């Protein structure tokens, strides 16, 4: 099927973010105030210009999720022009759906400017509750959970199979952490900002959580928040401010239950969604300046690199081990370091990845700024990987 | 903190599967109309939406598709089981199920190894189908 070339309907014109940290002293509303006000100020709009609020659903935080669902945020911030409010929940793919719904608000005339915030505070949730939540999220309660399944184990099963089929080595897998943390070390909003970048040897010498996943290949839960302001592409162009224009999108659904999710179907989905999104944007993969991949765990990155055609088949891991995706390498990749580098804020990592996509295209990424960044590929995925949403963003229409 | 092992959250159309495990039988849902073997069991055939569904008894033999052995960071209720190996097993009947590989050292488990079912009593109502190396 031929895909129509998109001219882009929406653009991100403002971003706000608090550093991802462990900060139980900050309430969720404290963080929301900061990120929303920063994003609105960054956009150049007045608070009363915001006509829609669509929040990425916080995970495992029922009180704030309920407050945000039922309309408290516009009232709290005094957004006097707000016409409607809702939240979207698709786990890590939640923010992608916020952006889609923002496009619907904008193109249907509901809103001219939409605020998309996210907040997560893990550090005040009892550790047993967070372990229980992540053991059950995206896992079948009849056919997987009673056997002792966890998120880490699901990723371990996927990684072992990929390593078996591709020949990717433990050293190559561990080097993904080194690459992601090299970006994180330069990111003021990362939990690991300014911290030592672990070597492959250090990653592999950390304790084994579950094969082949070492402790340093897992994620550290943290607190954080971010926000974006979205307007029509036409309005963004008229405003003449730095913006990130959404140029293409494609998605495939795989399965809600990991055991029925075939790795070959996932691989084909990663490949075809990139191809279709690029085609819709009217560009090719050679035009992409930044591969801003969100996979939550490091173990999926070599497979992603191969499916995107960034690395030849069987060499995804080698590319990471050679440092090509690291800070200073020749293939800018996940410049906030994905969840292992940023710190895991639940559904917030993908929100932060969109903020980074906009930041790079706006030329505001500081030390991590990708030179001449014109086009960015970004993906998101929800739950334990039930889908893959590929999007293409550009600095101009 | 609840330390009891979780029991499967069943649906009316999956109860026959668990009844089978109580009698040491591994049952697979089968569509009489399109001849599909179905896992996990559904209310209607996911291939053709037929409700003409039946059960066949699996041989209980299969092959390890993938596995991961847990040493840490599992729910408190599973901590006493560590280390344990979660696996995806491809049954000879063409379906894949999540399970545990038991009765061996974790180092013995490899992708592609042959396994057979063994039933683990959870309580009087539920026996989980685990697998052991052949």
Could you give a short account of the major beta sheet of chain A?
9 strands, mixed
Q: Quaternary status of these chains?
A: heterodimer
Order of adjacent strands in the largest pleated sheet of chain B: 4-5-6-8-7
Please give the largest β-sheet of chain B.
5 strands, mixed, barrel
In whole angstroms, the N-to-C terminal distance of chain B is 38 Å
Query: How far apart are the termini of chain A?
Result: 24 Å
The total strand number of chain B stands at 8
What is the CATH architecture assignment of chain B? Beta Barrel
Top CATH class of chain B: Mainly Beta
Low-confidence stretches of chain A: none
Question: Radius of gyration of chain A, Cα only, in angstroms?
Answer: 20 Å
Query: Class by helix and strand content of chain B?
Result: mainly beta
Strand/helix succession of chain A: EHEHHEHEHHHHEEEHEHEHHHHEE
User: What string, H for helix and E for strand, traces the elements of chain B in order?
Assistant: HEEEEEEEE
Strand coverage percent of chain B:
35-45%
CATH topology of chain B: OB fold (Dihydrolipoamide Acetyltransferase, E2P)
DSSP helical segment count of chain A: 14
**CATH arch. level architecture of the domain at 10-125 and 221-239 in chain A:** 3-Layer(aba) Sandwich
How helix-rich are the residues of chain A, as a percent range?
25-40%
């Amino acid at each position: 099927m031929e895909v129509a070339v998109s001219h882009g309907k929406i653009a991100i014109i403002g971003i706000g973010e608090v550093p991802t940290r462990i900060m139980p002293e900050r309430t969720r509303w404290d963080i929301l105030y900061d990120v929303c006000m920063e994003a609105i100020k960054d956009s150049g709009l007045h608070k009363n210009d915001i006509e829609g609020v669509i929040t990425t659903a916080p995970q495992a935080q029922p009180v704030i999720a309920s407050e945000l669902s039922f309309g408290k945020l516009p009232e709290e911030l005094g957004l006097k022009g707000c016409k409607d409010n809702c939240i979207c929940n698709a786990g890590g793919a939640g923010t992608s759906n916020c952006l889609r719904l923002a496009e619907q608000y904008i193109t249907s005339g509901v809103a001219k400017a939409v605020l998309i915030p996210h907040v997560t505070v893990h550090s005040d949730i009892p550790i047993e509750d967070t372990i229980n939540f992540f053991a059950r999220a995206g896992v079948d309660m009849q056919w997987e959970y009673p056997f002792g399944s966890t998120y880490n184990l699901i990723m371990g099963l996927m990684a072992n199979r990929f390593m078996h089929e591709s020949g990717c080595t433990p050293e190559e897998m561990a080097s993904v952490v080194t690459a992601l943390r090299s970006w994180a070390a330069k990111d003021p909003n990362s939990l690991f900002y300014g911290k030592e970048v672990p070597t492959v040897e250090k990653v592999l010498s950390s304790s084994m959580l579950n094969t082949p996943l070492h402790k340093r290949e897992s994620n550290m839960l943290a607190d954080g928040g971010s926000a974006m302001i979205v307007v029509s592409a036409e309005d963004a162009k008229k405003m003449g401010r730095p913006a990130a224009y959404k140029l293409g999108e494609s998605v495939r659904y795989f399965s809600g239950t990991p055991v029925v999710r075939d790795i070959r179907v996932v691989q084909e989905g990663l490949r075809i969604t990139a191809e279709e999104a690029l085609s819709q944007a009217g560009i090719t993969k050679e035009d992409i300046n930044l591969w801003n991949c969100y996979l939550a765990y490091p173990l999926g990155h070599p497979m992603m690199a191969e499916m995107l055609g960034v690395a030849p088949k069987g060499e995804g891991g080698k590319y990471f081990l050679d440092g090509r995706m690291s800070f200073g390498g020749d293939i800018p990749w996940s410049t906030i370091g994905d969840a292992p580098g940023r710190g895991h804020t639940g559904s917030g990592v993908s929100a932060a990845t969109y903020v980074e996509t906009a930041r790079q295209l706006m030329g505001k990424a500081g030390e991590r700024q990708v030179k001449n960044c014109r086009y960015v590929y970004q993906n998101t995925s929800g739950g334990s990987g039930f889908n893959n949403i590929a999007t293409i963003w550009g600095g101009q229409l | 903190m609840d330390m009891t092992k979780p029991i499967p959250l069943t649906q009316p159309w999956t109860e026959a599967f668990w009844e089978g495990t109580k009698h040491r039988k591994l049952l697979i849902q089968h569509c009489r109309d399109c001849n599909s073997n179905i896992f996990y069991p559904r209310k209607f055939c996911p291939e053709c939406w037929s409700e003409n569904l039946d059960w066949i008894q699996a041989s209980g033999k299969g092959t390890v598709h993938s596995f991961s052995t847990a040493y840490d960071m599992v729910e408190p209720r599973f901590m006493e089981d560590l280390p344990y190996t979660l696996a995806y097993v491809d049954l000879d009947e063409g379906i894949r199920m999540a399970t545990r590989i038991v009765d061996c050292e974790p180092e013995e488990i490899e992708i592609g190894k042959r396994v057979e079912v063994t039933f683990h009593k959870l309580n009087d109502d539920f026996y989980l189908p685990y697998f052991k190396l052949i």
